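Field log, afternoon session.

UNIT: design team B
ACTIVITY: writing a sequence onto a fixed backbone
BACKBONE:
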């Protein structure tokens, strides 16, 4: 004989409990990947700064020509 099906009502304020296994399996690798991608982006920020500086120079030149 099969056990009866229980119907539990869940309120909107109840949330699933985050277990240690979930943290180890999902949250920790996600944080590691975000950290690594942030660190790898550090080498490109200098190039981005140069591009923005060059763009600013072009804007200044255009403004000077169109006075």
């Amino acid at each position: 004989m099969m056990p009866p099906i229980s119907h539990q009502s869940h309120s909107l304020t109840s949330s699933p409990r985050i277990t240690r296994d979930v943290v180890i399996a999902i949250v920790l690798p996600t944080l590691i990947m975000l950290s690594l991608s942030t660190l790898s982006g550090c080498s490109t920020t200098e190039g981005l700064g140069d591009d923005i500086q060059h763009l600013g120079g072009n804007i200044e030149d255009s403004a000077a020509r169109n006075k």
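LOG NOTE: The two ends are 90 Å apart (CA to CA).
NEXT ACTIVITY: expression trials, pending approval
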